[in-house]
Amino acid sequence: MKKLLILLFIAIFCPALRSEPNTPVDSNSLMRDGVAVSSAAVRVAYNSESGKWMCTFGEEVTDTKNKIAPGQNLELLPSSALERVIASMSSSNTGEFRLWATITKYHGSNYVYPLILLPVTESPAVAEPNTPAASAGPDPNTSDFADANDKISIPKEVLERLKPRRTVDLQKLVEGTVSVTNEDVVFTERSGFIHQDYMKNYVFVPDGLGRSVQMVSLRVLPNAALANAIEVQSNEPDRIRFKATGMLTRFDGQYYILLSRATRQYSHGNFAR
C-alpha cells in the first residue's frame, strides 16, 4: 500500500515540476517588442556588405526574460536621430554612443529604433603631482566600450528631445502644409491602407476619404504592430482600412512610420473600397 502511494505521488507531482523549470535567460532568444533601452553603451557602424547601419551593444540589455548580450549586433532602423548621427560622423562611419531606443520584434528578428544617440567623449585627464606618465600602450583590462557606471552629462538639447513629442496631422503632411525634418512626431488615429509597394516594402497610404488629396506612401518600419496588420490583411480578399497610431520620422529625405497600433476600421458600407 505504501509503495502504491509513493508511485501515485510521483505520477501526479513530477510532471508538474518538470513543466515549470527555472529557465535561465537565453541570449539567443528574442526581446519583446516595445522594450525601452535607456543610456546603453553601443558602437554604431555602417556595414558596407549589407548597406545597413548596425549597433553593437557594449552591455547587457534585458526584458527580465530574454536579453541582448554584450557584443551582439542589431540593425538600426531609419530615424531622424540616426540621420543626425550619420551627418556628424567622420569618414570612418563608426562611433561610440549612449543609446535611448525602442527594441522592435518582427518575423524572427529584433531591431533597434533609435530615439537619441549621444556621442561618448572622453574627459581630458588631469595629471597628478609626482605621478608618472601613463604608458602609451593600450590597457588590456580596459573595455572597448565606455564604462556603464560613468556619469554622463546630458546636454540641454537632448533633454528637450526626451520631452513628449508634438502630434502631427498626417493630412496636413500629405497636403504639404506641414513638414517633419529633424524630429520624430506622433500621429494618432489616421485612416489608411497597408500594402507592399513595387519594391516589396510595406507602406501606409493615408486615406483621403473621398477628398481630392495628393497620395503619399509612408514606409512602415518592422515591428509587431506591422506583423499583426499583415496577418489581418492576409485573411481578407479585399484591401482593409486600418486606423493607425504611431511615430513619424524622416530619414534620407523619406518619411517612415513606426506603428504602435493598427486596428481594422470597418466601413459599414460608408466608404468605397
CATH class of the largest domain: Mainly Beta
Sum up the overall morphology in one term.
globular
Order of helices and strands: HEEEEEHEEHHEEEHEE
Gyration radius (Cα, Å) is: 25 Å
- Total count of strands: 12
Provide mean pLDDT, rounded. Answer: 76
The count of helical stretches stands at 5
Q: Strands of the biggest beta sheet: in what spatial order?
A: 1-2-5-7-6
Q: What's the story with the biggest beta sheet?
A: 5 strands, mixed, barrel
Instruction: List unreliable stretches of 5+ residues.
Output: 4-27, 123-127
Strand content: 25-35%
Percent helix, as a range, is 10-25%
CATH fold-type name of the largest domain: OB fold (Dihydrolipoamide Acetyltransferase, E2P)
Specify the CATH architecture of the largest domain.
Answer: Beta Barrel
The secondary-structure class comes to alpha+beta
Q: Compute the separation of the termini in Å.
A: 73 Å
Number of domains: 2
Structural features, described:
- By secondary structure, the protein is of the alpha+beta class.
- The chain has two domains: 35-122 and 144-160, OB fold (Dihydrolipoamide Acetyltransferase, E2P) (Beta Barrel), CATH 2.40.50; 165-265, OB fold (Dihydrolipoamide Acetyltransferase, E2P) (Beta Barrel), CATH 2.40.50.
- Helices cover 18% and strands 34% of the residues.
- It has five helices and twelve strands.
- A five-stranded mixed beta barrel has the order 1-2-5-7-6.
- The longest helix has 18 residues, at 2-19.
- The chain is globular, with a radius of gyration of 25 Å.
